[in-house]
Design goal:
The complex is a heterodimer of chains A (about 120) and B (about 110). With about 120 residues, chain A is mainly beta. Chain A contains no helices and eleven strands. In chain A, strands 2, 4, 5, 6, 9, 10 and 11 form a seven-stranded mixed β-sheet that branches. A four-stranded antiparallel β-sheet of chain A has the order 1-3-8-7, with no helix packed on it. Chain B contains no helices and ten strands. Classes of the chains: A mainly beta (about 120), B mainly beta (about 110).
């Protein structure tokens, strides 16, 4: 069981370039999430998905697009990268519920993105 | 606007009990309180979750008063390996879109020898 994996681990982009971050999970989870983490800002939700073929906006969706064509994969796209998108990006997945009551998220190791 | 507030940092010594309190004044009926731990260069990891009163597992306890406007994560007898950032999260329990996830900014815990 690999859990949640993220590709790539590191990336440097120039302003205006595009890229796609891939998240994969092998736990058959329904929910998947993309976060960004910046110093002093905690975790901020970009987009999420509650099932294959569905996506929804989070707290900071501007400048990002997502797709969930397969249940196990959640892609995050940057169409035209900006320096403000320099951050560490985390993907997470979860079941809708847990024995405790609400879903608990399993996080990937993160992707460190720098936009010059 | 719903907010989750926790101290920015805390210091402790090995063997002590550490209590980190999170304030969530606007918590709703369907919301649960969850705590995560994050080490440098890693993703957060689930510690404990609760709805009311007290929950205990093998690593921590979670105390939630009757009004549920705050919660306290208790780490018994901390060690150096407990040095990490701890996040409080208020999350809705129902399935579907319009999910609510209110993350605190994290408490950086430093455990000293």
């Amino acid at each position: 069981n690999a859990g949640v994996t993220q590709t790539p681990k590191f990336r440097v982009l120039k302003t205006g370039q595009s890229m796609t971050l891939l998240c994969a999970q092998d736990m058959n989870h329904e929910y998947m999430y993309w976060y960004r983490q910046d110093p002093g800002m905690g975790l901020r939700l970009i987009h999420y998905s509650v099932g294959e073929g569905t996506t929804a906006k989070g707290e900071v969706p501007d400048g990002y697009n997502v797709s969930r064509l397969k249940k196990q994969n959640f892609l995050l796209g940057l169409e035209s990268a900006a320096p403000s998108q320099t951050s560490v990006y985390f993907c997470a997945s979860s079941y809708p519920f847990s024995l405790a009551g609400a879903d608990t998220q399993y996080f990937g190791p993160g992707t460190r993105l720098t936009v010059l | 606007l719903a907010k989750t507030t926790q101290p920015i940092s805390m210091d402790s010594y090995e063997g002590q009990e550490v209590n980190i309190t999170c304030s969530h004044n606007n918590i709703a009926t369907n919301d649960y309180i969850t705590w995560y731990q994050q080490f440098p260069s890693q993703g957060p990891r689930f510690i404990i979750q609760g709805y009311k009163t007290k929950v205990t597992n093998e690593v921590a306890s979670l105390f939630i008063p009757a009004d549920r406007k705050s919660s306290t994560l208790s780490l018994p007898r901390v060690s150096l390996s407990d040095t990490a950032v701890y996040y409080c999260l208020v999350v809705t329990s129902y399935a579907g879109n319009n999910r609510k996830l209110i993350w605190g900014l994290g408490t950086s815990l430093a455990v000293n020898p």
